[in-house]
From TrEMBL:
Pfam assignment, any one: SbcD_C
Molecular function as annotated in GO: 3'-5' exonuclease activity; endonuclease activity
Record protein name field: Nuclease SbcCD subunit D
Sequence ranges assigned to domain Nuclease SbcCD subunit D C-terminal in this UniProt record: 266-355
Family per record: Belongs to the SbcD family.
Subunit structure: Heterodimer of SbcC and SbcD.
Gene name of the encoded protein: sbcD
Organism annotation: Streptomyces alkaliterrae
Keywords associated with the record: DNA recombination, DNA replication, Endonuclease, Exonuclease, Hydrolase, Nuclease
């Protein structure tokens, strides 16, 4: 059976101040064309269909059009919700859509109810594991500790139990998670609060192929466990990514053979670093005039009108970072966003306490209170997004 594995469409998302609607439409055109030309038997979408719980109408229209076109080809689509999606909203009408070949798996309770498709070698069971927010699904899976590994492990136990009743059936799991060995980037939403986010790849033992979503770089954790990555770059940290989908042939013995299908690139991404006069004069940078550009300026003092001056030479410069090499002035010159770059919520709140107390950071008890407050806020936000 031939499968097309994709994920992390993030419909409705832009890139800095640039709309990506046209680029997302081009990707969906490419996906439908690939499904037709490669005679794909099913499309797998491993979560983060939308960029936010309540997507804009333009994003919903893209989604609706893509499903109609896949349906017209007679290609089943199996799709799970990710941490950016509202599972309840995405799952509306799942029963009716399933009859049309669009199989939405957004309810954690249904993770062991497979979509069954068949080829000349027999049936294949497709299990959809939507993003499992530990604090919200702990009761459903009856786990003592609400951690990512615990709830995903319990879900996979249900999958393996169902699969054991189907001797000789090949199996595919769709999951949206941060799996050990995966390489993250800046554009994925943090899911680390409330315990260790990464889960071991061994959690997925016993199935033939695992179609992962969440991380935006296309990568293989093993022959049977792969991330497709996002079809478009959503941060400059993805400048070196090759955006693609996995075209997968699942053989009669369940062994997968995969090849990458490149996605359309709306515009090249690049990062440059140096003093403003150096960057404006360097002829080697001339090819970057057509690129979406992030510029890191190393001048000791922030140059006046830097963005406007850079835009004269680089019309598509989108992001300006100030990182002076003169460390005597660096801390005072850095902007708020620059000071927070690369720091998680726990570090930021601890730094704030130290700042307002003249350098004395939180003690162990205070750190525990901060962790509890952050976890409570995150759970309330997840519950709010899950509410229709």
């Amino acid at each position: 059976m031939r499968l097309l594995h994709t994920s992390d469409w993030h419909l409705g998302r832009g890139f800095h101040r640039v709309s990506l609607r046209d680029a997302q439409e081009r990707f969906l055109d490419h996906l439908v064309a690939t499904a037709r030309e490669e005679k794909v038997d099913a499309v797998l979408v491993a979560g983060d269909v939308y960029d936010r719980a309540v997507p804009p109408l333009s994003a919903v229209e893209l989604f609706d059009d893509a499903l109609h076109r896949l349906g017209a080809l007679g290609v089943p689509t199996i799709m799970i919700s990710g941490n950016h999606d509202s599972a309840r909203r995405l799952g509306v009408g799942a029963g009716l859509l399933g009859r049309a070949g669009v199989h939405l798996r957004t309810d954690p309770a249904g993770c062991a109810n497979p979509v069954l498709l068949a080829d000349e070698h027999g049936e294949i069971a497709f299990y959809g594991l939507p993003y499992l927010e530990p604090s919200l699904v702990r009761t459903e899976f009856d786990v003592e500790h609400a951690g990512h590994a615990a709830v995903l492990g319990a879900a996979m136990d249900r999958v393996r139990a169902d699969l054991a009743t189907r001797p000789g059936t090949r199996s595919v799991v769709l999951a949206h998670a941060f799996v050990v060995g995966g390489e993250p980037c800046d554009s994925e939403r943090d899911i680390t609060a409330g315990g260790v986010a990464a889960v071991p790849v061994g959690v997925f033992g016993g199935v033939d192929y695992v179609a992962l979503g969440h991380l935006h770089r296309c990568q293989s954790l093993s022959e049977r466990v792969r991330y497709s990555g996002s079809p478009l770059a959503y941060s400059f940290s993805e400048a070196d990514h090759r955006k693609s989908m996995w075209l997968l042939d699942l053989g009669p013995d369940g062994r997968p053979h995969a090849e990458r299908i490149d996605c359309p690139v709306p515009r090249r991404l690049a990062r440059v670093r140096g003093g403003i006069e150096e960057l404006l004069a360097d002829q080697a940078l001339a090819p970057l005039a057509d690129a979406w550009l992030e510029v890191t300026l190393t001048d000791a003092v922030r140059p006046a009108g830097a963005m406007a001056r850079l835009a004269e030479r680089f019309p598509h410069v989108l992001n300006l970072v100030f990182d002076p090499e003169d460390t005597d002035h660096a801390d005072g010159a850095l902007g708020y966003a620059d000071r927070l770059r690369g720091r998680d919520d726990h570090q930021i709140t601890a730094d704030f306490v130290a700042h307002v107390r003249g350098g004395r950071g939180p003690d162990d008890a205070e750190r525990a209170l901060l962790r509890d407050a952050l976890e409570t806020a995150r759970v309330h936000e997840a519950a709010r997004e899950a509410t229709p």
